[in-house]
Amino acid sequence: MKFHEMFKKRRMEIGTVREFAKRAGLDVAYVSRLENGVTLPPKDSGKLSKLAVALEIAKDSDEWQEFMDLAAVAKNELPEDLRDDERVASVLPAFYRTLRNKELDEEDLEKLLSLIKSPKDESLTRDSGEEE
Q1: In this predicted model, what pLDDT tens digit does every residue of 75-115 receive, in sequence order?
Q2: pTM of the model as a whole
Q3: Is-contact 91 107, C-beta < 8 A?
Q4: CATH 1.10.260 domain locations along the chain
Q5: Under 8 Å between Cβ of 74 and 41
């Protein structure tokens, strides 16, 4: 699913474009452009959150996270909560190679698997010189 598809689906559950726009304090043309994929989701996270609230998406729910992730994808960005995560940054090159069907070396594969399996606050590698 793409951002504009999710947006339109949720908006249709609420009412017409005009009803939704009026209730949310948005321009009808803007809402129409968003749900037709003509306009990208807002860059400002506060404005994006306001859209999610207007769509009656529960904050911090799985649907909220999906909405934010789809918005990031639509803008060709990493999701905001992952941008500054050093663990994610360290495995992105391996992930990109995987997507391009390139072979991963053993170290990159281990890092990628560790990131997928481990809680966010655990250390990704043991080669940082720190004792566990």
Answers
A1: 988 888 888 888 888 878 877 877 787 776 778 777 777 77
A2: 0.71
A3: no
A4: 3-81
A5: yes
Cα 54 off chain centre by = 18
Q: 3-81 has which fold?
A: 434 Repressor (Amino-terminal Domain) (1.10.260)
- With 0-12 / 13-18 / 19 or more C-beta atoms within 10 angstroms meaning exposed / middle / buried, residue 100 is exposed
Q: How many helices (H) and strands (E) does the chain have?
A: 8, 0
**Mind listing the pLDDT tens digit for each residue in 15-67?**
999 999 999 999 999 999 999 999 999 999 899 999 999 999 999 999 999 99
- CB of 125 within 8 A of CB of 114? yes
108, 91 in Cβ contact below 8 A? yes
